[in-house]
Write a structure and sequence with these properties.
With about 70 residues, the protein is mainly beta. It is built from one helix and five strands. Strands 1-2-3-4-5 form a five-stranded antiparallel beta sheet, with helices on one face. A hairpin with a 5-residue loop joins strand 4 and strand 5. The chain is globular and about 30 Å long.
């Protein structure tokens, strides 16, 4: 796993956040959740985790999935 970057909800996502994840991140933030996002890369795929308990994952097929965070 490679660490990407962190940013606060409500602020602009860094340029390193893939365009495919941005609409899903906005959807999660639209639920009124607050906290900080962490962008990491696993096997070349982006994962954005919100410390309020959600993650936005890009699957191997390129699909973007929003789900509660699983430890």
């Amino acid at each position: 796993m490679q660490l990407g970057t962190r940013w606060a909800t409500g602020s602009a996502a860094p340029a390193s956040v893939p365009a495919a994840l941005r609409p899903a991140i906005a959807e999660v933030e639209g639920q009124g959740l607050v906290g900080h996002w962490t962008l990491t890369w696993l096997e070349g795929r982006a994962i954005a985790e919100l410390d309020a308990g959600w993650e936005v994952v890009q699957t191997a097929s390129g699909e973007v999935v929003v789900r509660p965070f699983e430890d």
